[in-house]
Amino acid sequence: MKTGLFIRKYDEVEWEKMNKNKCVFLGSEGCIYKLPHKNEIVDLKNKIKDMEIHIITPLVSQMNLQLAKDAIDDLISANAIDSITFNDYGVLYYVANKYKYSNIKFYLGRLLTKSFSDCPWSDHLNRNEEDFVKKYMNGFALNDPRKIKMFKDMGIEGAHLSANHKNAEGLKEIAQNGFDIIVHLNTIIGSSSRICSQAQYHSLSYPACKDKCEKPAVLRLSKVWSLKEDGYIEPSKEVKRMVPDYYVAGNITYYRNPDQELLLDMSHLITYGVEDSHFGAYVYA
């Protein structure tokens, strides 16, 4: 497993870490305006010899689809990218068809590989199910050789996964089918939306919303709704244990991955282990 840093803005690059890792995932899973510029990746490639540059592209609204296409075309023209990750099928189809014979690897992003096991309380929801149902529910959509073949035929060579103890068996199956596995070590995506939560909450639009996005809001469980009491009540210890703190950055909500040590033990199956540098201070607080 090679470790790479997930960075959303070029000016967040920590050069000491970059020189050590020589592997970076630049971009965003949720915001088109976070894509790096061509001159930034060229500069990065020139500054650090043998640097691996992986681009993460976001969920894209119809209004921003052409902007996304133009930005990705420009990045590809730099001839400095090792892979592109897609979190939007429309963008994936466009790039996979236009650049079918390029040397760039194409990967599925976490918004396209989300699973039921990403829900922190999925075990609670599955508590009365048979073992075979639990295994199925905790698997990935890619735990089907036919789907992997379909994506391979499109030129897709791997997938970003939010992995944990519940879907570890599913991860093994995907690796055995010859897919590159990119695991995000310290975060799991809880939810996503096409509307930017922080921009909407603060009544801002781009670029004024950028400062808010770069300071993730922390959501902590306060009360739970009770049908029996017909109102909000204090959560039980069990509920508090199940519901983690959430970190809202733009239109993506993350929470800490509690199984990082397990993933490190499975490193022989993982092509890249991604550390989210943006959330490091928040996730480990």
Keywords summarizing the entry:
alpha/beta, 8-stranded parallel beta barrel, disordered C terminus, 4-stranded antiparallel β-sheet, TIM Barrel, 33% helix, 285 residues
Give the SSE map.
Layout lengths: L1 E6 L7 H7 L1 E5 L10 H10 L4 E5 L8 H12 L6 E4 L2 H10 L6 E4 L13 H4 L5 H7 L7 H9 L2 E6 L6 H9 L3 E5 L2 E6 L4 H5 L8 H4 L3 E3 L4 E3 L4 E3 L3 H6 L3 E4 L2 E5 L3 H6 L6 E5 L3 H4 L2
Parallel strand pairs: 1-2, 1-14, 2-3, 3-4, 4-5, 5-6, 6-7, 7-14
Antiparallel strand pairs: 8-13, 9-12, 10-11, 12-13
* CATH homologous superfamily (4th level) name: Aldolase class I
User: Compute the gyration radius: what is it?
Assistant: 19 Å
Uncertain segments: 281-285
The helix/strand order is EHEHEHEHEHHHEHEEHHEEEHEEHEH
The quaternary organization reads as single chain
Task: Determine the number of helices (DSSP H or I, runs of at least 4 residues).
Answer: 13
- The third-level CATH topology is TIM Barrel
Strand content: 15-25%
